[in-house]
Amino acid sequence: MQAADLFCVMVQELQRGLDKLAVRLVPWQPPDSGASSTEAVKVEDMMVLVDSLLENTCTGDDQKLFDVLSLSGVYPRMNEVYTRLGEMTTAMRNVRDVLDLGTVQYTAAECIHCMC
Fold first, then answer.
1. Where does it primarily localize (predicted)?
2. Measuring CA to CA, which of 43, 47, 51, 110 is 20 to 30 A from 87?
């Protein structure tokens, strides 16, 4: 096998590997192989695929579920969120009682109008 043929085979194998990785990392997106086995594989297509994978699977700090480092921290954080929700519900009920708003749901603008 010549060097050029070997290079083409390796690039095609790389494209297949990237396609498999894309299906695994972003299964909600339909597989979009830029080339079939008979078409020429373009390096540009592979670069676009890698950029897309990086964009859709970003693991930065802003993507963490409940801002925890591991799965074991999710349940305590969910409990904390639920506790805060209960506190806020109680506070809203108390404000409604103090302002004599009854049980009717008011918008924020209506609540401010009642206070003035």
1. cytoplasm
2. 110
